[in-house]
């Protein structure tokens, strides 16, 4: 059995994890404010920082190519920050689940990226 289906499934999971992380970060920022306008502003600001970091350094087509260790550090800040955000808004079990999924998914992504795809 080739590794293509598992690799594709893990890439799809990574995308879903990234979207969930952005939602968690927005929710955390939103929870910091008093009044809807400030809540939206803080949620959007946290979201903008996360998207900027991800787009510049961690996305598959990142604008700036950095060593793998730095890319993993950025992923830790954004994805780990999402787990902490969940914890911060009162969802400790979801935070642990998010952290476990992030670690497993990122570990598999890096493993697949370092190993060439099987030849057909």
Radius of gyration from the alpha-carbon trace, in angstroms: 16 Å
How big a fraction of the residues is strand? under 5%
Could you estimate the helical fraction of the residues in percent? over 70%
The computed structural class is mainly alpha
Q: End-to-end span in angstroms?
A: 11 Å
Total tally of structural domains: 1
Low-confidence stretches: none
Helix and strand element order? HHHH
Shape: globular
Largest sheet: none
**pLDDT averaged over residues:** 91
Strand segment count? 0
Number of helices: 4
Please characterize this protein's 3D structure.
This protein has 120 residues and is mostly helical. It is 79% helix and 0% strand. The longest helix has 28 residues, at 4-31.
Task: Briefly say what this structure is.
The protein has 120 residues and is an all-alpha fold.
Could you name the key traits of this structure?
0% strand, 120 residues, mainly alpha, single chain
List the helices and strands and how they pair.
Blueprint: H1 4-31, H2 36-58, H3 68-88, H4 92-114
Helix pairs in contact: 1-2, 1-3, 1-4, 2-3, 3-4
């Amino acid at each position: 059995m080739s590794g293509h289906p598992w690799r594709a499934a893990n890439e799809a999971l990574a995308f879903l994890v990234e979207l969930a992380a952005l939602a968690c970060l927005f929710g955390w920022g939103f929870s910091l404010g008093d009044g809807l306008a400030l809540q939206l502003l803080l949620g959007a600001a946290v979201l903008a920082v996360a998207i900027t970091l991800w787009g510049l350094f961690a996305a598959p087509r990142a604008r700036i190519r950095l060593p793998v260790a730095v890319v993993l550090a950025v992923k830790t800040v954004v994805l780990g920050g999402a787990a902490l955000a969940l914890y911060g808004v009162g969802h400790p079990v979801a935070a642990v689940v998010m952290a476990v999924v992030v670690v497993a998914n990122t570990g598999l992504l890096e493993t697949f990226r370092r190993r060439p795809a099987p030849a057909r």
